[in-house]
Design brief:
This is Zinc-binding alcohol dehydrogenase. By secondary structure, the chain is α/β, with parallel strands linked by helices. Helices cover 24% and strands 29% of the residues. Strand 10, helix 4 and strand 11 form a beta-alpha-beta unit. Helix 3 crosses helix 4 and helix 3 packs across helix 7.
Length: 323
């Protein structure tokens, strides 16, 4: 079995290339994985693609098995599904999810590979890291049955948050986005959709995931008295205007930052990373979530395709496929 492999590297602003990589025979406690499909995280990878990772966040932004340093050149990615082709007998031939850059074949510790449930196809399993982020956002926000909830920003994480909240008894969830095409996605997920001009007011809870100042203003406008706005967007180095005038103080609103690097305090003692990701994978058994998969590109074509993929508005989870 060959030890050779290929990996995607971001090498300069708006430029990527495929470089040789190694996939050595696994040692004890390791396994070798042949990639089936990986997901492009449009929000994070567009910041990397354009060289906009802030100096202060370059260490915190490092992904598992990343090579190189920000801004460039850097091998990056974190949504990988593959099949175990060499390793412990109990995992041989299994489809697994792991955090790894876009690469055709690689060797990792066996503890980092999570078997994908038989009820979840590999294409949908690439959403596992996004689902974990959405889970943590819900844990931070603590939605309750009957809540009126708005989710501003219909990217993958925003849609997953809306879908999770919509499964609670009695909740009324509205996904808010400027893209008219999100209405079809919301319908597939079983939730309501509106544009910002028709966003609901007086909500018990609001999530913001549009990564825009306009979206944050809409989210604050949706919040009812003493409600919380959960901020899920990461803006990189871009400054953001927060509209704290108007009714912000009289409404006694709270803005809460949520991100997956630190788990909600109420869950932190009992929910290590592996348990969270196992739950995220199991939740992906719903075929309605296929609405969040917006296309695929062969790995060999990825450098040429990235400009359109990362700059294209309206894209959800675009997958990379491997030979």
């Amino acid at each position: 079995m060959s030890d050779s492999a290929s990996a995607l590297w971001y090498v300069a602003p708006h430029r990527a290339e495929i470089r040789p990589a190694a996939a050595p025979a696994p040692a004890a406690g390791e396994l070798r994985v042949r990639a089936l499909t990986s997901g492009i995280s449009r929000g994070t990878e567009s910041l990397i693609w354009s060289g906009r990772v802030p100096d202060s966040e370059r260490e915190r932004m490092r992904g598992p098995h990343q090579e190189g340093d920000f801004p460039f050149p850097v091998k990056y990615g974190y949504q990988m599904v593959g099949v175990v082709e060499d390793g412990p007998a109990e995992l041989a031939g299994r489809t697994v999810f792991c955090l790894h850059p876009h690469q055709t074949r690689f060797t990792i510790p066996a503890s980092e590979a999570l078997p994908v449930p038989d009820t979840v196809p590999p294409a949908r399993a690439v959403l596992a890291a996004n689902m974990e982020t959405a889970l943590n956002a819900c844990w931070d926000a603590a939605p309750r049955p009957g809540d009126r909830i708005a989710v501003v920003g219909g990217g993958v994480v925003g849609c997953l948050v809306a879908w999770l909240c919509g499964r609670m008894p009695g909740t009324a969830v509205t996904l808010i986005d400027i893209d008219p095409g999100r209405a079809a996605v919301a319908t597939a997920l079983g939730i309501a959709c509106a544009d910002p001009d028709h966003a609901p007011a007086g909500c018990d809870l609001v999530f913001h995931a549009s990564a825009s100042a306009a979206g944050l203003s809409t989210a604050i406008g949706c919040a009812g008295f003493e409600a919380t706005v959960v901020e899920l967007s990461w803006y990189g180095e871009a400054p953001v205007a927060v509209p704290l005038g108007g009714a912000f103080h009289s409404q006694r609103l709270t803005i809460l930052g949520s991100q997956v690097g630190s788990v909600a305090p109420a869950r932190r003692p009992r929910w290590p990373y592996r348990r969270r990701l196992e739950l995220a994978l199991s939740l992906l058994a719903d075929e309605r979530l296929d609405a969040l998969l917006s296309g695929e590109t062969p790995f060999a074509s990825l450098p040429a395709a990235l400009p359109a993929l990362l700059d294209r508005p309206g894209a959800l989870c675009h997958r990379v496929t491997y030979p």
